[in-house]
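Hello forum,

I keep getting stuck at the same step: I have a sequence, I want structure tokens, and every attempt I make locally crashes halfway through. Rather than fight my setup again tonight, could one of you with a working pipeline run this one for me? It's a single chain of 242 residues.
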Amino acid sequence: MEYESPSYRPGNMWCGIVSAQALWNRGGPKGRPMPQTALHNTVAAPAEADLRMRLGKRSIVLVGMMGAGKSSVGRRLASRLGLPFTDADSEIEAAAGMSIPDIFVIRGEAEFRSGEARVIARLLDGGPQVLATGGGAFMNPGTRAAIRDKGISVWLKADFDVLMRRIKRRSDRPMLKTADPAETLRQLIATRHPIYAEADFTVESREVPHGTVVDEIIGALRKILSPAGQTPSASTTLERGS
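Reply #2:
Ran it on my machine without issues. Output:
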């Protein structure tokens, strides 16, 4: 099976027909340029530019439940810091040549999770960036280790009511296509929250302007990347969670 990814259209930095299966098996093309939609960032203010310098080649990786606002907050955070924004789910769809709901139906969750891990591993080699991950990505121990090695993880934590209100607006959540989506969400929260708590720090995602959440993330990043609390390498142990 072959497909032409939207990112391969003429005029982009690379183009052509690729094998979807081969691309999926290796987590997408290495050396792929950042999606053009991610490159409209404003120039970072001096304080944010200093933060970006301290970040080095590490990615800021947003983790958390579906509906926590990882993509919406991530785009704004990237713009504030003058960094590219990457949505892991979009990259997974490009690598697989199909939508995530279709991957679940055609290939199953196990193969989706395997491909998700490969794609995120590739993306982490492309920092610095703001990287939004899918709700189940951080559950993979190998992915958590890769994020710890090459990034700083931020758990966007939202309570059940906030998540339920947000996810009702969309019908493309494969994990919630069950007889009782609310109960499924409760079970996912119970299973995933203890693992999300391993993130480097936590910011509450609630019904406030996205800019407020971005300010809180930047404030936390300043603390852990300050000369006193800087995390220059994976060998430095951070206080994880909130």
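The chain is about 45% helix and 10% strand. If your local run keeps crashing, start a new thread with the error log.
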